[in-house]
Fold each of these.
Amino acid sequence: MISLNTAVKFHGHLGPWLVLGLLMGEYGIKKIKAAKYFGLSIEVSGLHSKPRSCMIDGLQLSTGCTMGKGNIKILKSKVIFANFINAKNGKKIRVSLKNEIFNKINFTDGHSACETLAKKLYKNKPDNLFVATE
Ligand SMILES: [Zn+2]
């Protein structure tokens, strides 16, 4: 599990979207039983603008899929999800955010409230945050 400190050192600040990226990455990797870095590729959608796009950094950190290696692809769609594809056997799942989590973030305003929410989200069980579909 990537620590919040490590994530902030890479990304520059602590926010809910960064944390969701971290957790979603770990969740997705487990679901398709893939190895980090080279064992999978991901496609992310709905993260075209800040602060949502902060999630992309969290996903890169937790999956090892990076822009540099080319195994993360940004899809142009308004719906927020990430596809996880196992490079060995092609197994694919789609992970989406639960609506209540999306709403919670949208109704959180201000720097310190966002940091508090980020820390709270980090302690959540992934099943409370995400939905996986085949
Ligand atoms: Zn950010």
Amino acid sequence: MPGRSVIRTALDILYPRRCPVCHGITPGGSLICPACEKRLPFISGRRCRKCGKPVSRAETLCRDCASVPHVFTQGIGVFLYDEVMRSTVSAFKYRGRREYGIPLGVLAARAAAPALRAWRPGAVVPVPVHAAKLRRRGYNQAEVLARSVAAEAGLPLLTKLLVRRKKTEALKNLDPEARRKSVTEAFGTAAGVRCPERVLLVDDIYTTGATADGCAAALRAAGADRVYVLALCIGGGYLTRY
Ligand SMILES: [Zn+2]
Ligand SMILES: [Zn+2]
């Protein structure tokens, strides 16, 4: 039987890996070009201790987490949603670059490794997309990411546990209360799939946490005790403005 590296090399020739930042073929089958990796906006420094958003020196919680209680336990974001990530995520999500989820998931799992060690989740669960969107796009980008995160972190992946019952399109036009109601109704869990006590929810972008809370509420109702959130990117998009 040929070794893994031989198979990998053969696959690289057939399907050369493309860099999620410059879209070129990566050198030697690496995940990302070394120069492009340097351009990635890894979040470092102080973070909101609830959602993981960058905060100033004086804050322990971001403005949103200080004013709106969350259903999820704790979260971490890997990248700022800047111009580089906007373009990468847009290719991954809307221009069919499904394979970008693999290197992005590996980078996310590596960056979040200390949090994952502390949280000890029993399974990785992607934020589900509505069936109509799944048909249109062909894949759920959060599931592609979650699969890569689970493989890199050595955790089981549960893709059938959490389900999306309703579309939640116009969230940004709703006030926080209406938004919460809308997302809580949008998610549920499938009967017959056991929910672990500690779940790691994976999504591509975290903004206000409304989606994460909707998922966390459904997972808690199914028996989860702690719901952690790993977001590839963390955006601004504060609910509370002042
Ligand atoms: Zn590149
Ligand atoms: Zn926060």
Amino acid sequence: MNGDSPMLLLGIGTAGTRIARGVLRAFGENLRYAVADTDASASGDGDEFVLLGGDRLSGRGAGGDIVSARLAAEDSIQNLDSKLEGVRLAVVVTCLGGGTGGGATLEAVKRLSALGIPSIVFATLPFMFEGEDRQRNARGVMSMIEDAANATFFLPLDKLVCGADVMDEAMRRATDTVASGVTLFWRLVEKPGYIKLDADRIRRLVQCAGRGRFAAVTTQGPDRAAEAVDALVRSEMLATAQAPVRSVLCGVLAGNDLRLSEIGTIADGIQQAFGEHVSFDLGTVNDEATFSGRLSVVAMLFESGGRDAGAASVGGVMSGRRQRPAKGTLGRGRFNNAERTEWHGEDLDVPTFIRHSITLDF
Ligand SMILES: Nc1nc2c(ncn2[C@@H]2O[C@H](COP(=O)(O)OP(=O)(O)OP(=O)(O)O)[C@@H](O)[C@H]2O)c(=O)[nH]1
Ligand SMILES: [Mg+2]
């Protein structure tokens, strides 16, 4: 593990820990990482594990109880600090639906923020077949995580598995897809190509990024650049918009045969498809050993309404949080003059999809 890196991969919860370790395997190289769980059985052999909620949960996990996971994490989140020495950007991987993934992620992101460390959160959402309780668990923390983190990717498992049917293969594809997004940051920094994005530039870029979507495609052959753009434009992972795109981060990963004209095709194609007047950053990765003869393009689209949505440009100085309408004024409809029905600080007279910023597909 590279203990000096300014970037840390942090897996949270049992499945978050599993995916973080899968990302590590997919990357195949030094990558600084830590994992945190309330379940001691996830600890593994190395010293990268942090047990959360020791006294409250005695290392047994939160059993799907998001409130007890959050309380347990609140008590013990400082345990993470020993893993954060010199960290300037944290990439958090978590799976929403259980207790710890949701409850502890929120506390971890708040802790990172308190220490001045920007965070990018990749959070999977449960399969539809997992049922309403797990869906509700996930929905209940999405907007809170979004408010506390600098950039968030919510990734429905139903989409991540890319049509795989056998469970084992489905989980492998889900991990591979998450890995293609997560590792982009390390590849851009550690294997820069002609167009370099260093750690500080990425840090500034994600500081006000907000909610994002991403997709990765790999192509080969003489028309590989145009085919990559075409596949990204049709990608289901980039399809569901919550709000207009505000900024784009594009990574072009290839071996020594990457052509300038290919970079041009990709830059033009992505901008034409996703917004010509939005902030656009492109970095290239030159990694002959991994991408020889192949071209991989990762497109990350960030929506309006991210942290400090009013900032003039991505990369500008950041301050403040996302502007939300004041509590009590949002979507109360015909309950406007009625007494508030509060539960855990939420106004239950406001429809759930508005409280949790969920866009309905009609
Ligand atoms: N990608 C992936 N997702 C998984 C896997 N196992 C579970 N999940 C997802 O992760 C969600 C959270 O499950 P867990 O990680 O077991 O729960 P937890 O966060 O550890 O929470 P508690 O065990 O309740 O403390 C589930 O609802 C699933 O959607 C896995 O092996 N891979
Ligand atoms: Mg668990």
